[in-house]
Amino acid sequence: MKKILYLCSIFSLFLLVGCSYKFLTADTLPWVGNNPALFVDSFNSQTGGWLTHEDRVSYVGYTQNGFRLWVDLPDYQVLSVPGLNFKDVQIFTRAQSIAGPGDNLYGPICRYQDEGNFYAFVISSDGYYGIIKKHDGIQSLLGLNQFGFSESINRGESVNDILAVCQGKQLALFVNEVELIHVEDTTFSFGDIGLMAASRSQPGADVLFDHIIVMKPSR
Q1: What digits encode the pLDDT tens for the residues 78-116?
Q2: Shortest CA distance to 86 belongs to which of 28, 164, 18?
Q3: Nearest Cα to 67, choosing from 37, 92, 45, 40?
């Protein structure tokens, strides 16, 4: 797949699709037209419809600087979705770990059906990556036997630009404009988008997303 070269030019596009459709997906509705931006949220206000949650061991919600996901349990994941419905999309987000161990996972979600069924495009603060499929509650890696490693991922608390492509059966993960993995899967064809953070053997994964842009895939 070719790298996506027009990301910088789309930050000014604010076509917000704020409704869910049971049988139609927002990216295929006739009034969307040719505008590449389907959904944009900078998390500056709490009007994007994202699910929020807070308790002793987790936080999912808005902060002054973005949208934060924190979990203080080992081998546990937290996520949030805005209640939309898309078929083919590119999801761009900028994120960073703000605390906790480097052995974490974070990134965007596409084709979310419920908490047991979705695709997640994740990286870790110590340089690993993968595309996760969660199907009927069972989680697996697509195209890899274990998480891959890439020097293209900024480590520690550095910022990473993450692009997930969900187009037909094609699924791809780009980080900092480098394609890390491209696989095919037909389990899910539409659904919500979202954000996820997860701990692994150590608790304390703490990730901040400062915006998200959902676009039509380039043809």
Answers
A1: 999 999 999 999 999 999 999 999 999 999 999 999 999
A2: 28
A3: 45
Phi and psi torsions of 168, nearest 5°? 60, -130
Residue pLDDT, tens place only, 106-131:
999 999 999 999 999 999 999 999 99
Q: How much is the pTM?
A: 0.85
**Which phi and psi angles does 169 have, rounded to 5°?**
-90, 0
CA dist 184 and 57 (Å) reads 35
Tokens of 50: 């994202």
Q: Which residue has the tokens 């080992």?
A: 74
Query: pLDDT tens digit string along 129-186?
Result: 999 999 999 999 999 999 999 999 999 999 999 999 999 999 999 999 999 999 999 9
Round to whole Å and give the CA distance between 142 and 129.
Answer: 11
Q: Which residues contact 33 (CB under 8 A, 6 or more apart)?
A: none
What sign results for the dihedral spanned by CA atoms 79, 115, 107, 206? positive
Q: Which two tokens stand for residue 167?
A: 């187009």
Instruction: Report the sign of the C-alpha dihedral through residues 114, 119, 123, 128, in that order.
Output: positive
How many CA within 13 A on the CB side of residue 79?
Answer: 28
- What letter represents residue 59's amino acid? Y
Residues 6+ apart with CB under 8 A from 216: 27, 35, 36, 38, 88, 89, 90
